[in-house]
DNA sequence: ATAGGGTTAG
């Protein structure tokens, strides 16, 4: 910047201080390069009597890109029109983006009209930015209308559309757009893999990734991060390790996001030690790496370690963000650290000035709910500055179910269901709550409501990976080719733990939280089939890792503890909300989940 | 003439 100022002084001496082209270069440097200075650019701009369209464009770019002042970019555009300067094809991408990041919906639509008025309706870049803007406004129909009207769509148009569909959960529409363009770039491939991941279609993500490798598309750091998140989401450790190895052997740069994706993958696939090893080995730990590691310790029930790591982070002067606190609070919730959570909740607001979001309140509700402090949980909900959403109420409903608060749970459950009628979990929770109180009539009514509304039940499954192959089991499943053997093993295993006191809890069958089919005998729940298969196929002493998409049921939890003791096996099971490490007859969750 | 668009973690 200092060299630039010297140069600027020089140009003034030469009498060029009002020369548009020369000043254009100076403003371009100030408002478009990394170490520029927007204020300086503004001063220079103000000294120019008749700025041309290039000057306006480049300064608008500076406003939204360098200074995050999108509003000023929009104002500058208005001034430009007022000065009767005709916009060109470079003008609109800037203004549209400014409307987009400023969430200026009304202005955005007006700018769209002007794009057409000035004759840039067929400009590819302007159209792509319009699509991006409407996607950001969550107005997929308008985005699609722009997309459909384009005389020639680029691969960028498709990528933007796919990303938009994915964010709103429309994976089929995304796939249709993906297949519609023959020349696929690696960015496009990545956006489609990410679309599968974001919508929870991990299988689709892996299948597309394989197809991508077949077509010899280069596996870059973006795709690596996306596939790692798919591995994290589905517990696919084998593939996750493969990607990690690939990154190392191809010397792909470990940027903060990629490092965080690797750590998160190891955490979510049950390898906490490996995650710590990578975390500790990072030459410089970005905020994202700290966040992932704290979050990992949280879901593994290591609240103390998570809190300690957070303190270390403060010592290293890394500024935490709202995710850091979400993870710290989650850690406290899963370890029953009530006082610490209260302190950090305050600390976040008072010391760091971070306003709690709805997720933070949800976390506090969960914390008190798990600890059976229902009144405190209620107080959190009543004190929230925003309307509680279904997930906050769902957390309280879960607590009511566990602690037998039938009346409150009934009221909260109804509210949560009304707010999000398509979420099957809340119906199941409410039905379980009624069942535990013996209110069978109400159980039947909830079931009927669910049927009438055609709410899709998520089938519970347990998955186990052995030698890189993933086997999936649902309750009472006989589809596995070795199913005879597996069932015999399960029977034998249950017999041997019965000798040390296992008794199937018949009463719990009707109101467990696992979402397994109620008709299936407890002894063939998917968790037990997966454990049986694991014992059958692995060597003595090897750790058994299981992934369950819903929450583990109470009876399976009890059985797993005993199995870990009788068979001297460590069993690491990830369920919907956390990890359970079964070892020597005990579980790391200390029976509160 | 100069300049513009899409992808990844928590």
TrEMBL record:
Per-repeat ranges for PPR: 52-87, 154-188, 286-320, 321-356
Keyword Repeat: yes
Pfam family for this entry, one: E_motif
Biological process per Gene Ontology, one example term: RNA modification
Superkingdom as given in the UniProt entry: Eukaryota
GO molecular function, one term: zinc ion binding
Keywords: Repeat
Residue ranges constituting the DYW domain according to the UniProt record: 501-593
PANTHER family the UniProt entry points to: PENTATRICOPEPTIDE REPEAT-CONTAINING PROTEIN (PTHR47926), TETRATRICOPEPTIDE-LIKE HELICAL DOMAIN SUPERFAMILY, DYW DOMAIN-CONTAINING PROTEIN (PTHR47926:SF402)
Family label: Belongs to the PPR family. PCMP-H subfamily.
Protein name: DYW domain-containing protein
Source organism: Punica granatum
